[in-house]
């Protein structure tokens, strides 16, 4: 039974160093402290959710980890390497991928093309011959990813013609195509209907088998359903950490959410 | 080996610079107001100056009164501006900025050709209402130039007062700062946009009539005004009224001093240098407090 | 008096409101609760005409507000106090208030009377009346935003999270202001995440989740019903 707030080794044997670690991560915007000394560790293979009321610092934390924002102080260590302050494209090369809230897909390209382009970025070759030979491999890989996100049937359609839910799933597919070991999802079910949300939850559960996933979400059902561990942020600090059951039983967390 | 420039020439150019600066300020303040409130980059603004000059010339020719010509031109072009904005620019609100740039550019071409059709290819003349000169150092300096600067300053002062007091001033300033919230407060934002465009057009026309005696009235005169007004608006800070006035004088003085060493036609290079330096080092505008 | 009927609103392709129906009676204070991102603000924005619904209607005093521009919605008697206050930072406090006073048919005496009334309820605004709006503190800006809406003499005020980011002392001031408005017969549609305040001031409460109204009850009933509150608002 893990004690809330501690970072004990998981019981399933996937021990070792955490895949992502932040130490005293702090972000200040002028006089405003958005993140105050946030330290957490994400275990390899888990689904970690970051939740918190309005203004808690979830987006700021997310943006720091994915390289969009430079922290004021503190460390971010991914796979043993310091990544704080690195630009997003460098972080992506290190196998940390993210999905975006405002969809980042290429609307004028086909669904398959969208994923293929992302997949190709991993196998860049200057040799034309080798590049051509690798092409079929990349296409196969892209198709496998479309299978995983449930969009294989739509592969030849334009990405712009997909429904909102399908577009967000395509987002996830594009992120997957860069072969990450850590996938960061930014409110993956925002703007989706209940049905679409359920489908996305299933999708995430499927792909989580070979990945570590960090997810920021507002939808409590999604969070409680998917996450192994939840970190609750409040006014830029870690308020509590634990399994879904532990967080739900945590009176202080309830207080903060209900403002009682 | 530079030739020393006599101090009198520098002082005369200072006066010239201020005079041109004030006329330019009339044009630029309209342009910056329009941009500030509705994000429209009005490439046809110089053509409004040109049309104002033509209407002024025509009215002067038939009535003989400069002041009647001045007022008529300002009112007619203000009205024209309102109709133009309501019919062609209002439907484009909220679209990609490139759309309005193309639209106003197209309008400028149409207006130039219209002027050609309406008034023929020959230039017009506007007689200055105040003849006579006074002794300024080694020169006989026309009173008219000084009167123009004072008059332009008076118009700008009136504009400033209008914006600071009164119902429409508040409407305009509120809609410039936050179009959506202004609308939620019951301010009829589309109407305010048309009003501001009309004011900008009227001021442009006014400067066209004032400029007439100094530079003549031709169909192509608009382009130089548009060009300089844009430089001034960027250097002064887009949407910043005070900045555009200061920048007008600043840029005009630069050009005036530059024409002491090169020909006046080449002196416009000084304005471009100011523009480039502003964009490189203080892109939000030279006369704008540093953004934090 | 105000009714949203099966409203669907999108931001681009993102389907935010999935058939929202809400009613507010004359002079009523109605609460709208829900976690972040469920569509509470979007509901208010749709009512105010800042965003057009793809389906459904917004009806006010029997009239369909379809396609009405926000300034016309303000004229029929609906005022909006947004989540980030959005006061005009470069206008003085007085000028901010005047944006609501420059209405046709309002005599100078009436304007002065309205100003005096609001200064009486918010003395700090009288003190700072010539100061630029942007120099006010967060709590003062919130007062100004509400006072500004009151200048429209509206029949209903849409209040979006008025207590967000405010200190507890200011929260009780908001409570008083809501009471004052209620006494004057102004209806309020209050979007909040502060559950105790909402249950205290509202007569009825809607709870939203994922773009839909999931629960609707009199506030009195919800005050004792912790299970429902926890389900939709807790963790």
Structure explained in plain terms:
The complex is a heterotrimer of chains A (260), B (292) and C (235). With 260 residues, chain A is an alpha/beta fold. Chain A has two domains: 1-95 and 182-260, P-loop containing nucleotide triphosphate hydrolases (Rossmann fold), CATH 3.40.50; 105-179, no CATH class. Helix content of chain A is 36%, strand content 23%. The longest helix of chain A has 21 residues, at 128-148. The relative contact order of chain A is 0.18. Chain B is mainly alpha-helical and 292 residues long. Chain B has a single domain (7-281), classed as ABC transporter involved in vitamin B12 uptake, BtuC (Orthogonal Bundle). Chain B contains eleven helices and two strands; from the N terminus they run ααααββααααααα. The longest helix of chain B has 32 residues, at 7-38. With 235 residues, chain C is of the alpha/beta class. Chain C has helices spanning 40-48, 70-76, 93-101, 108-121, 123-127, 138-150, 168-183, 195-201, 219-224, 226-233; strands spanning 2-11, 14-24, 29-33, 55-60, 63-64, 78-81, 156-160, 187-192, 204-209, 212-218. In chain C, strands 6-7-8-3-9-10 form a six-stranded mixed sheet, sandwiched between helices. In chain C, strands 2-1-4-5 form a four-stranded antiparallel sheet, covered by helices on one side. In chain C, a hairpin with a 2-residue loop joins strand 1 (2-11) and strand 2. In chain C, helix 3 (93-101) runs parallel beside helix 6 (138-150). The radius of gyration of chain C is 17 Å and the shape is globular. The mean pLDDT of chain C is 92.
